[in-house]
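Researcher: We plan to redesign the surface later, but first we want a full-length starting point. Tokens attached.
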């Protein structure tokens, strides 16, 4: 097949996949997880059911693909927060705030409760711990963060502490939680 056609077909497949994931998420928000069917997703996406089945075997596979996309986007947000900030301490604060806001805005739903059981979540969680651990180690090396606790332990602490953001009522409360968490990371604290 000519290269031009291959590129167009790949772009079309990606567009159908993205539209399918977006449609499924919208349907879950409107009808709940149990109200989503392959027929509804196909209709909302604007494709036939047979075409949909070429991409995904069932609703569960679609929701899993949507969640994997969300996790990848969240990891990209964290990388942007790290890369668009000043010194090591500021990078940690920016990443932790971004993480807490993601938790506040995107978790605690019926869909997230179902999807956070998969193996892909364990892999993403390990990547997240490593990501935060490396930032904390950098901050400890620079002398702006504590070095008396292993960075991996501190990363786990931070992520668990900021997981509470899901239950907070406002973004201001989330920011206060990040401030409290950051205070525990400074040299000489605790």
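Model: Full-length starting sequence:
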């Amino acid at each position: 097949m000519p290269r031009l056609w291959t590129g167009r077909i790949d772009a079309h497949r990606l567009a159908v996949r993205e539209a399918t994931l977006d449609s499924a998420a919208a349907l879950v928000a409107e009808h709940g997880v149990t109200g989503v069917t392959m027929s509804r997703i196909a209709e909302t996406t604007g494709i036939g059911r047979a075409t949909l089945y070429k991409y995904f075997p069932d609703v569960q596979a679609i929701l899993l693909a949507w969640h994997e996309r969300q996790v990848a986007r969240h990891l990209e947000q964290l990388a942007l927060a790290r890369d668009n900030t000043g010194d090591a301490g500021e990078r940690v604060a920016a990443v932790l705030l971004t993480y807490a806001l993601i938790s506040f805005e995107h978790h605690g739903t019926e869909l997230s409760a179902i999807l956070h059981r998969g193996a892909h979540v364990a892999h993403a969680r390990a990547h997240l711990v490593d990501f935060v651990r490396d930032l904390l180690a950098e901050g400890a090396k620079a002398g702006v963060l504590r070095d008396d606790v292993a960075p991996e332990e501190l990363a786990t602490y931070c992520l668990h502490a900021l997981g509470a953001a899901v239950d907070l009522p406002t973004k201001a409360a989330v920011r206060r939680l990040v401030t409290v968490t950051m205070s525990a990371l400074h040299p000489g604290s605790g």
